[in-house]
Every structure is written in structure tokens, then in C-alpha cells.
Amino acid sequence: MAEVLSDQEYIHPLKLFDIAKNEKRLLYTSAPMVRYSKLAFRQTAHQYGTDLCWTPMILAKEFNRNNFARDSDFTISTKGPQPPTIVQFGANVPQELARASSLVAPFASGVDLNCGCPQSWACASTLGAALMEKRELVRDMVVATREQLRQDGWDVSLQDSADSPGRGRSVSIKIRVHKDLRRTVDFVTTLLSPTASLARPIDFLTIHPRTRQTPSSVPINLEALELLTTKFGDQVPILLSGDVFALSSLPFSSPLLSDPASLPTFTSSEAEAQHPHAHAHPQMVKPSVSIPKLSGLMSARAQLANPALYAGYDACPWEAVETFLNNVARAPLPFKLTLHHVMEMCSPGMGPNKNALLSKQERSALMQCGNMLDLIDFLDEKKGGVGVTRREGN
């Protein structure tokens, strides 16, 4: 960890929601991804329009007890872009979450409790999606965290204080849904119910509208999203996590979404010539489901493949790869992780545009790079063979 964020560097997440709404758009966020949501990637996403970034999930218990965990799990920048960052924790004890949140508060915009990870190891430890069965425990954790931050001088109410500008830190949770949506309604109602000292325990909510058992290959449950945003969207800002593959292909409409036909897109005529079997852009059909009370989007796999997703690109441009490598030079990552990021960016993305910066054969050769010098030389050689442009008006 590094220096405390200055007031000039800090914007409270709730203000970011307000800014996006005033600009008549959804808030754009980057999901917490194990191994991948490190500083260099967060910086790259932020430089391409991401408003708010998440760290990978950090185990609160280990973070509290281990200096190595604190140094390796949470890194911020003291030079160069410092994206507004939410630190996500995995926890099942109120005191552990409160203490870990206290440690990161000087360096982050807020903290988030993971109630959505479906992985078996997490659920076996009563972490992640297993917490969806323990709403009272979740409430106890966020209330304890809020109280700890208040004692430390980071109360959310201070976001607008003239005496302590920028001192407030947000508390949020990321959830999945139950098969019986009534249980999810009860869960969220518990998290939004005021206490004697709190108007509401959480500041905003991220919903992944799949159950713990639903694979990612199954589309998100739009009925669940519509129900939950309709019921709670006026009480708290809500982010959608899941199936955010491209701004032009979201499965719902919203007053805060641009007309898909007006969105800028990535084009690569030379790439199309080199890869004639790439999928053509599908005919855009206006979604029949409207989600008017949704406040923002959270992308995971699609943004890993295309960090420029929110900047209007529907496939990754070369300049995003270059930006990422420049950020890695300042905020180093293990080489194998850097290589994996570049591999994702040079492969077909998750959206309807399946053009790739490198062919399958070229990506196979890419994986033979043994160090950063090999990687940079390889990309410099290949970049000249693929043209990258953006549509006029960008």
C-alpha cells in the first residue's frame, strides 16, 4: 500500500453515480476478477472510460494478519493515474471485515463485501455466494464496518462536509439471486433497513442475476433484474454484473443507454480480410425488456478481452494493448499474468464483433514469448499487419 489519497484525488462513489446520471448515462465499472483486477489493468480500464474499478476479492482474515498479503493483494499508484477503486473483501466475521476496511480506507474509495462468488472453496468457507443464506450475518458485517469507518473518520456523510471534504468511504455488497426471488427481496430489504444510527447500512448494490448454481453460459435472469431494480432502485444505486459484453448488445433497454446505432465501434478492414470467417455484426434488435431504474454496468470477462469496451470499441484496439503494457512498466505484474492479459486482448472478444488482433496461429506463437522483451518485439512485429481504426465521430 502507499500514500493516503488526497482530497483532490478522491471522488466518492455516490458522486460518481450522480455525475453519470447527470450525463444521462449509466455508471461504468470493472468487476473484481481473481488475479486480473490488478493495478495496471485497473489503470488501463480507467483510461478507457471505466468510472469505478474493483480489486480482486481479498480475504479479510489473511489481510488483517499478514503483511505479505497486504503488500501483494492491494496496490495503488502514487504516480500516474489512480482509478477510483473499491476494495472487495471476502469475510464472514463482522470484526474481520471492519478491521480490514479500516486498513484500506485511507487508500481507496470504498469497500465491498463479496456475496456472489459461486466457487466451491469459497462457499465451503461460508464466503461469497454462501452468504446469500445468511442475511443477518451480512447485515451485521456491513453495520460493523460502517461503524468502524465512522470511528476512524471515514463516515459516508463526510462526502459533502466542508470541514472534511472527500473523507467519506462507501460500503457496498455484490450479490447473486435466489431461485425463489422472494428470498432475494428479503435479503436486500434486510440490508437496506435503517438502524438507530444509520439511514441504511450500504451505499449501493451490485446484482449478478444468476443463482449460485447457474453457469455463466446461461443468460442472466432479466426478470429478476427488472423486479429487484423496480423495487429497490429508488432506494439505492444498483449495478448490473453479468452479460455486459458490449454497449451495443445489452439484452435490455434503459433511458440511460444510447441508441445502439449511435454507438462508436471498432473496425478493422485488414483484420477482416485476414480472418474471413470472423462473425459479421448481427442486426441490432431493440430489447423488449426495459430496466429504467438501473444505475450502472459492471463488466468482467468482456472487459478482460477489451478494456476499451466503455470507450465505444466493440473489440480491443491495438492502442489498448500498448496502454496496458505501459502501465505494466510502471506497476509490474508477473510475466505470465501479463502474457495472459495480452492473450485475452488479442483474441476474439465476448461481444458480437469477433475480430481479433492476432490470428489463432499468431496467438499460439505469442504464448512462446519468454519475457517482456520477447513480448514487446513480437507485438511490434505483428502490429504492422493489422489495421485498426474507429468510426468517424469518435
From TrEMBL:
Is the Lipid metabolism keyword given for this protein? no
Any idea where the DUS-like FMN-binding domain is? 31-249
Q: Which cofactor does it need?
A: FMN
Q: Which Gene3D superfamilies match?
A: Aldolase class I
The protein's matches in InterPro entries, at most eight in alphabetical order, are given as:
Aldolase_TIM, DUS-like_FMN-bd, tRNA_hU_synthase_CS
Tell me which UniProt keywords the record has, alphabetically.
Flavoprotein, FMN, mRNA processing, Oxidoreductase, tRNA processing
GO MF annotation, one: tRNA dihydrouridine synthase activity
Give the superkingdom in one word: Eukaryota
Which reaction is the catalytic activity of this chain? a 5,6-dihydrouridine in mRNA + NAD(+) = a uridine in mRNA + NADH + H(+); a 5,6-dihydrouridine in mRNA + NADP(+) = a uridine in mRNA + NADPH + H(+)
Among the Pfam families in the record, one is Dus
**GO process terms (BP):** mRNA processing
Please explain the role this protein plays, according to its UniProt record.
Answer: Catalyzes the synthesis of dihydrouridine, a modified base found in the D-loop of most tRNAs. Specifically modifies U47 in cytoplasmic tRNAs. Catalyzes the synthesis of dihydrouridine in some mRNAs, thereby affecting their translation.
Could you tell me what this protein is called?
A: tRNA-dihydrouridine synthase
The species this protein belongs to is Cladorrhinum samala
